[in-house]
Amino acid sequence: MSDSMPGPPAYEPAPSREPAPPLPLCVERPPTGHPEVDERLARLADADHLPAEGHAPVYEDVHRGLRDALTALDARPAPHGQPVPR
Known about the structure:
Low-confidence stretches: none
Helix content: 25-40%
Number of helices: 2
Strand content: under 5%
Shape: rod-shaped
Number of strands: 0
Distance between the termini: 93 Å
Mean pLDDT: 82
């Protein structure tokens, strides 16, 4: 019979308190056919390289650009010079 005692537990490093690096979301953005809109949506990829607190400014910029593109559609004259009804 052996009276051997188990050795000390293996050393496990403490978990890091540093935040994990940002990881890309890899969300596909198929082309819409509207270059201005596609350009704005492509800007969403900038958030892939930022920590979470940096996402809001990117999203706000994209939202502002898309809103401006929609507003510009309302301002364009209809065919034959007729104003676009709202």
